[in-house]
UniProtKB/TrEMBL annotation:
The keyword DNA repair is assigned to this record: yes
Phylogenetic placement of the source organism: Bacteria, Bacillati, Bacillota, Bacilli, Bacillales
Name of a matching Pfam family: UDG
Gene source species: Paenibacillus helianthi
Top-rank taxon: Bacteria
Protein's name according to its UniProt entry: Mismatch-specific DNA-glycosylase
Keyword DNA repair applies: yes
Length: 172
């Protein structure tokens, strides 16, 4: 199955970073394409996008200053199918992408994505201020996974993503 292409560019406000694409995303070639994934609704409800986008429009969000990548490019049924070797390689590739493109914020879509990338034992929701960022000058933000399997109530998830919206509004 083909990898889902990154949507990255210089000057982005936020790059959303997932574990890896779902099988459905791999089939369609777009990020967060599984219909049970709430990502696009979360972006709209948090204010990060002006309307509800479809996964097929993921490339259009570059114009809004939003980009997409993953720590591992290979689509799988679940993150448990990613090998240790893929994570090790993915950490370096992701670090290189963040260094090259230098988004203002790297938003990790799930605590596990952040802890896997940084090798830190834990994380709180929101901006990670207690330790220096892995890539100098790129602020790190941890948001809940948008997977339909997440048990956190949707209003709580949206409120965490809304912190990104508020930051962007205050700092642009």
């Amino acid at each position: 199955m083909d990898e889902v292409p990154d949507h990255l560019d210089h000057g982005l406000q936020i790059v959303f970073i997932g574990f890896n694409p779902s099988l459905r995303s791999g089939e369609l070639g777009h990020h967060y394409a599984n219909p049970r994934n709430h990502f696009w609704r979360i972006l709209e409800h948090s204010g990060l996008t002006p309307r509800l986008y479809d996964a097929s429009e993921d490339g259009e969000l570059l114009r809004l200053g939003l980009g997409f990548t993953n720590i591992v490019a290979r689509p799988t049924r679940g993150a448990e199918d990613i090998t240790r070797g893929e994570y090790a390689e993915g950490r370096q590739i992701l670090r290189d992408k963040l260094t090259r493109y230098r988004p203002e914020i790297a938003c990790f879509v799930g605590k596990g994505v952040y802890t896997e990338f940084t090798r830190r034992a834990k994380a709180d929701w929101g901006f990670q201020e207690e330790q220096p960022p892995i890539v100098d000058g790129v602020r790190e933000f941890v948001a809940p996974s948008s997977s339909g399997l997440v048990r956190m109530p949707m209003p709580e998830i949206v409120a965490i993503y809304h912190r990104l919206y508020e930051y962007i509004q205050e700092n642009t």
